[in-house]
Sequence to fold (320 residues):
Amino acid sequence: MIGVVIPCYRVTAHIMDVLAHIPDVVERIYCIDDGCPEKTGDMIEAQNTDHRVRVLRHTENQGVGGAVVTGYRHALADGVDIVVKIDGDGQMNPKLLPQFIAPITQGRADYVKGNRFFVLSDLERMPTTRILGNAALSFLSKFSTGYWRVFDPTNGYTAISASVLRLLPLDKLHRRYFFESDMLFRLATLKAVVLDIPQRALYANEQSGISLLRSIPLFAVKHIRNFFARLFYNYFLRDFNLASLEWILGPLLLMFGLIFGIYNWVEARDLGVEASAGTVMLSALPFLAGLQLTLSAIGYDVDSQPRTPLHPNLKADQDK
Fold:
């Protein structure tokens, strides 16, 4: 059974058209009125004739993440097998739903997300700030999640297997605009397979609720936190290998060589003398060794991206 979750906040101009184009393969549609001042939920109930649609309400705005989590919980309670999330502002084409569902039903992925950067000609229609912001956030996301082949991390057009969704700590997911990136981090700790799907964004007169360029510093702090958490989970708590040692020794030697070299360079400059060859080597060797170990650890991280989906075995185990 396929379910669709649609967070609704100030989308009265588009939501009915979105609902009208959701294909018949979908059996449940959850519209979450996230404390919307336009009372989107009331409008849907007044105009909707689709028996699949169910309106859920938040008395106070909880953010896109909070709305999606509410939809996820109801979908799991109803026994939905795959949960798709789209926005209600008309920028995500509901007709693409079968393409997002297929990799999961075929056992090729646990989580599927859209990527608006596959078709280069589409970039001409995309605001420049959005392109630059997404590029920067994608780079940060690759480090923090380990999904080095995944791009466009803030894209909210997603599909997930319910078997994998049940393993995610829904209470801990970020409730605001970092939600999509936080989902990737949580999936990385499970080593779930994530797949990008080409998606053409539909830009009209909608106003985005997030400024990507202003959000980069805030997101960077969260990505750094997630990066260290992922390293701990995947390289020390659940596994320990050569890359684990490289993640420890590489940065330590790199920082020692850098700090030692700067300290002695400043001291030699103040004394008006040249640093000895031994001092230079004592700085350069640890720095170069640390750089090599760190690059090796990153290379291992890139190569170890999950390739075997979890949900086929999880579903069999959960059905017992």
